[in-house]
Amino acid sequence: MASSNLGVGDKAPEFSGRSGQTEIRSADYLGKKNVVLFFYPKDFSPGCTAEACSFRDAYEEFRGKDTEIIGVSMDSDESHLRFAEKHALGYPLLADPSGVLAERFGAIGLMGKALGVSRRLTFVIDKKGVIQGVFRHEIAIARHLEDVRSAVQKCQ
Description:
alpha/beta
């Protein structure tokens, strides 16, 4: 199910993927944790590194609000492992090389699929699996983080 029209109040599509040796499934968070699911174009690119590090720096704050951060890009799991290690990212990064998750969440277009990159798109999903925020900030990293914080606060 691909949808570029997911919005606040919609049920989030189910997702699953690998992060290193760990299988991550949306079902594991239902009733337990809110999820910040952020799609980003490419490991090691300047904007994506800034975004990933901003979530890293706020990770403990989000965890204190029963919220897990999960990054997704079309890079390989090996690339994610190097990216996470280089920048000390403590949250999972899901490899989506085929773009299946990006399509399901409307985070990819035809050119993106051909180029192997998703759009920068973040979803805040509450413990019931309902989307409480959708953010498309291409370059406003600080504003992006503040908007995500506000949406997570609404989940409390």
